[in-house]
Amino acid sequence: MILVTTDYITGKKLFTIGMVQGSTVQTKNFGKDIGASFKNLIGGELKAYTEMLAEARAIATQRMIGQAQSLGADAIVDVRYSSSAIMQGAAEILVAGTAVKFMEE
Question: For residue 101, what is the enclosing H or E element?
Fold first, then answer.
């Protein structure tokens, strides 16, 4: 599956199928949350949260790809990610794009 942030794929004529999306809400365990709180006092990267968000992006992306594949798409264009805090230590990652099929020229 080809994923791009542009609304085109060079050299391909596209037929729009429709919007597809994937999302997940992730949280870290209490122990990691306590560790992050201490790190917050001295500054620096919160690696546990960086890893959590990377994992969440991968899960959301795979869900979007699965939805596109079920529609017979060849690619997803205009891919965009967003995130929001659900509660302390938990975040939602949403990814959305437009599923397309390649057309013969």
Answer: strand 90-103
